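Protein: Tyrosine recombinase XerC
Species: Novimethylophilus kurashikiensis
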Amino acid sequence: MISAELRVIPAIAPLEQMRFTPEVDGSTGLNRATGVRPQIAADTDVDAIKAWLIRFADTKTTFDNYRKEAERLLLWSVIELGKPLSSLTHEDLQVYQHFLADPQPSAKWIMTKRKMPRRHADWRPFAGPLSPTSQRQAMGILNAMLSWLVNAGYLAGNPLALSRHRQRKAKPRVTRFLEEDLWNEVKRTIEALPRETNREREHYYRVRWLFSLFYLAGIRISEVIQNTMGGFFCRKDTDGELRWWLEITGKGDKTRMVPATNELIIELGRYRREMGLSPMPSAGETCPLVLPIGGKQRFMTRSAIHIIVKTIFKLTADNLKQRGLEAANQVARLEAASAHWLRHTAGTSMAGSMDLRYVRDNLGHENLTTTNVYVHSEDNKRHAETEAKHKLNW
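Structure follows.
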């Protein structure tokens, strides 16, 4: 380690702006691989991290999360320890995990405002201390990164490989979902939204479509903001009946087909007409699944979708508060709920009345095998059962 009195401490900056001296840029890191042919051209830690990150460039949410964890570790290593990432030891990384729980000094590491542009002088790598769950996620991402750098011939070994990785026990049941009576309260709130002005109408139909999409398709918030209406397509089954499907590219860039029930197709047509679009999308259409107010065909952000959902939950909670203590538990659940609860609500509803194999495929919990491409009769049964037993009933 370089003495603090002799080294120049770099400024905190995001990955794309990092500039380090040769002593700490990783070119002479103690854990650099020797005697092997490297598979990447990187000679510094920053370039090696960029080589790892480029693999996730097509998935913005994953890319942003992975970059965040990599740059946090790199900055901490150089600024706090005065050593490159490629010199970190197992013991260093144990200290780093404790640092994640309380990044100090906070004025140096934590942003004063929740959202700050990456190029802003007040940008910091942390928004606050990380919860135990976030700490585990961060170390898991870093473990994957270090293992990849070993395989790429950049690092000699992965210091995190020595850590004890505890297998988390699966929860006995999902608890983050809305019970049927609470879900009905949410629907009543949506139906009571004002529709006097054009803007109010557009907001109402967008909210109704968004909640229909979450519930009837059971998709994730990341899938809402990354997929387009061109994913809807119609296919004739073996009985000659036309059935609509929604192709979704989701977690891990995996693609699955979700039954687009008649209810969902009706809601889609209603929303599209309100937005001045044709009732049904054309093949390959690039219009996002959900649009911002004003009709501009651009993707909404995760936070924007999250705010819409949380606003509806808050309105519902405010309505329930008028009933007094008898609704206190429901109010508390709504205040804790997020968009992902809608996916769990959909899954809970499906699991209560459908074959669990169909629920699994609808939610994309497992990879679809190549054989599934040819077993159309099984797909048709899944569509029919989803159609018959999984309804929104506005």
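Remarks: The chain has 14 helices and three strands.
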